[in-house]
Specification:
CATH topology: Rossmann fold
Structural class: alpha/beta
Radius of gyration: 16 Å
Number of helices: 3
Order of helices and strands: EHEHEEEHEEEE
CATH class: Alpha Beta
Largest sheet: 6 strands, mixed
Shape: globular
Oligomer: single chain
Distance between the termini: 5 Å
Helix content: 10-25%
Strand content: 35-45%
Strand order of the largest sheet: 4-3-2-5-6-7
């Protein structure tokens, strides 16, 4: 059985709180870079609550094979928008070791972004490989593998409306 960690309602409340925090921080146009595929659900809900004009792009970035991080960051897409001299917000589903956010942060800085901040739904309590911490974060969780609300196990379970700890890895959703 998978254990529900955050209900659909709890997620919605926390996303509203994050949106208020971001709205207080940014008054002008903001370029949002969503890390896909995991952050798509989170970003969709978050962006509808932001009050400033948004320029949106996504980057396909991955370090996972199944439930294990490979330790290597793989960029599977490029930016489509020009971010030079713009305020940029990276939106991701989960912050673990920090390697993905670090790699994306440096990638965006190399494209001459004026500022780069990060927003993650989940901040995992685990060993970090970077000193960088997210600027905005939703929930802090233990070092467990989670699924739902965009997060997957071998591309499954992204469509769950809640976030659960993955207990059963044999393919059943029980």
């Amino acid at each position: 059985m998978n254990e529900i960690l955050f209900s659909q309602e709890a997620i919605a409340e926390r996303v509203q709180t994050l949106a208020r925090e971001i709205n207080c921080h940014y008054a002008q146009k903001l370029c949002v870079i969503v890390l896909s595929n995991g952050a798509m659900f989170f970003a969709s809900d978050l962006l509808r609550l932001l009050e400033m004009p948004i320029e949106l792009d996504s980057l396909a970035v991955s370090s996972y094979i199944g439930t294990e991080s490979s330790g290597e960051i793989c960029f599977r897409s490029e930016l489509k928008v020009d971010i030079s001299d713009k305020d940029v917000l990276i939106v991701d589903d989960i912050f673990e070791s920090g390697q993905t956010i670090d790699a994306v942060f440096e990638y965006l800085r190399s494209h001459k972004a004026r500022s780069v901040k990060t927003c993650v739904l989940l901040l995992k309590n685990c060993e970090r490989k970077t000193a960088r911490e997210p600027d905005f974060s939703g929930f802090t969780i233990k070092d467990e593998f989670v699924i739902g609300y965009g997060m997957d196990y071998n591309e499954l379970y992204r469509n769950l409306p809640y976030i659960a700890i993955m207990r059963d890895r044999n393919g059943s959703s029980g």
